[in-house]
Design a protein that fits this description.
229 residues; mainly alpha; 10 helices; 78% helix; Sulf_transp_TsuA/YedE
Length: 229
Amino acid sequence: MSESNVSSRTSSRRREGAGRKPKKKQQPYGIALLVGVIAFGIYLSTISAKLTLFWILGCCFGVILQKSRFCFTASMRDPYLTGSTSVTRAVLIAFAVTTIGFTAIKYGYYSKGLPIPGQGYVVPISLATAVGALLFGIGMVIAGGCASGTLMRVGEGFTMQILSLIFFVIGSLWGAHDYGWWKLNFMLKGPTVFLPDLFGWFGAVAVQLLLIAGLYILADKWENRNQEQ
């Protein structure tokens, strides 16, 4: 390459750089936002300590989601689109941790003869479960995020996610309004499955962790196979 070509390319790059607008510094906005978060937390503390705790945990979860790019949609979509299963494996690890944690809490209540918390979420499994999961999965892919991912990207300023959030709220309200009819005519027709009733408490944990481990191994092999191709 001749020196004239190099100099012409260098000068053209300089002209392009000169034509660009300098990026605005975002540090002042970040500092102002942090001050606002702290001030609002102090205000909530005058109302209820629980509200303050929820506010702090919500902000922390938001930062973790934004930095980790943790998203249930990505965990199911990325293996097919990019071959990456890093988010998939992160979700599986989260499932394993929560399996142990929630089982410990439930078993603690059970061992003391107290009502087991969260049993209202043990609902019948039927064709409606599969159809609902399929529709929700399609909606997540089209919207580009699950509920947590949508909220996180709204905070980042994504216009598409703001639109998704609006219709997410509308759909949730509509679903809550008609939930009783769907439950009576479709959901209650299937069997209710609670793993500790089938395998015992420790057996249920073992079965679920083995299933998660199997999925983790498959996800790891899937990514390695795509990298080799």
